[in-house]
Design brief:
Blueprint: H1 7-22, H2 30-36, H3 42-54, E1 59-63, E2 69-74, H4 86-102, H5 107-120, H6 123-137, H7 147-159, E3 162-168, E4 182-195, E5 198-204, E6 212-215, E7 219-225, H8 239-244, E8 256-263, H9 266-272, E9 280-285, E10 288-295, H10 298-307, E11 312-316, H11 318-348
Antiparallel strand pairs: 1-2, 3-4, 3-7, 4-5, 5-6, 8-10, 8-11, 9-10
Helix pairs in contact: 4-5, 4-6, 10-11
Length: 350
């Protein structure tokens, strides 16, 4: 374990490592290090290099061919010993636990990092943060997805590279073997977001003025297309605003004004939760409130209304009310068919 360092030395070591990291390919001459890192003497520089090598495992080579340079091969385990209070530690460990849950493709990395933190942070605070993370995600499902696909898309977003994806929609027709049709799309990935237990890709497509939304668990393959010109998002486009427009997971332009009458006990539940950024609620009596919002997709709201039955009625628009009625009729039909099948089976039983 490295000995306690002064804040001045911490800042100097950080500046030294950053300089060596930026010039990783060619190295840095001693005179430049002394100047850029504001060393008072070569002796102080040598002492810092020795500490980084011996106590933190940094690999820093000195080339004796002219001009002589210091070259960074590995940063080792140098960690700034910041003054962390209990809430800081709680934030770090709880956040790390949640990241492992919501980002399955880096789960092992999160666990490895957690073990490193466990060795240098107060055990009681770390364990409490881990418990809090588990409590936060215990009932939050995350749809399975291909880790390679996710990383390929993140890399394409970072590099601004077009990609070709193989996508299977649950609404696609089936082939003769009963499998859903696989469709390919050439896309410009603009961002990813997590909503309603799944990750989604926001991507531009030639000839479309609005981004498409693709659920990552349905993407079977993603191939970069670096030779194709990248389609940049519109100047005013904001991934955060666009993703937040969804009631659940279908974002888009806000074009439908909804007005719902909500009665107890759902009225209290609605008043405690922000379902949508445009949401407004108004109590009209002790047992009833009115919820209004402007949403991009009525289908999601219709399914939500039905899930809260029988405590929500649609005042407007009529199209939404018809959707709710249609879903309720289908649900009744499916249950009636099942009831008939079970009755037939019982009649056949001797």
């Amino acid at each position: 374990m490295a000995r306690e360092l002064s804040s001045i030395r911490i800042a100097r070591l950080k500046k030294l490592l950053l300089l060596l990291h930026r010039r990783r390919g060619q190295g840095v001459e001693a005179e430049e290090i002394l100047r850029e890192c504001e060393y008072a003497s070569r002796r102080t520089l040598q002492a810092d290099l020795q500490m980084l090598r011996e106590e933190y495992g940094a690999e820093i080579e000195f080339t004796r061919t002219q001009p002589c340079r210091y070259c960074l091969k590995s940063e080792g385990d140098f960690l700034l010993p910041l003054a962390l209070d209990e809430r800081d530690v709680l934030s770090l460990t709880a956040g790390l636990g949640m990241a492992a849950h919501f980002l399955p493709h880096i789960q092992e990395n999160c666990h490895a990092l957690w073990r490193k933190m466990q060795a240098i942070l107060p055990e009681k605070s770390v364990e409490f943060g881990r418990w809090l993370a588990k409590a936060a995600v215990v009932a939050t499902p995350v749809s399975a997805m291909d880790a390679g696909v996710f990383e390929a898309l993140l890399d394409a977003i970072y590099q601004k590279t077009m990609v070709e994806i193989a996508y299977v929609s649950p609404y696609a027709p089936r082939d003769t073997s009963g499998k859903r049709e696989v469709r390919t799309h050439i896309l410009a990935p603009w961002g990813v977001f997590f909503r309603a237990h799944a990750w989604y890709l926001l991507a531009g497509k030639e000839g479309k003025d609005k981004p498409g939304v693709f659920r990552l668990s349905r993407i079977q393959a993603a191939r970069p297309c670096p030779d194709l010109p990248f389609l940049s998002p519109p100047e005013a486009f904001s991934q955060e605003n666009f993703a937040a427009s969804a009631w659940y997971a279908a974002p888009g332009e806000l074009e439908h004004d909804i007005r719902l009458r909500v009665v107890e006990p759902m009225a209290t539940i609605v008043s405690e939760t922000v379902w949508h950024p445009t949401q407004r609620t108004e109590r009209i009596d002790a047992d009833t409130l009115i919820l209004t919002a402007r949403v991009p997709d009525l289908g999601e709201v219709a399914r939500w209304v039905l899930s809260a039955a029988p405590y929500i009625a649609v005042e407007s628009p009529l199209e939404l009310r018809d959707m709710v009625r249609g879903l309720a009729a289908k649900m009744l039909e499916l249950n009636s068919l099942l009831e008939e099948e079970q009755k037939e089976e019982q009649d056949k039983t001797p």
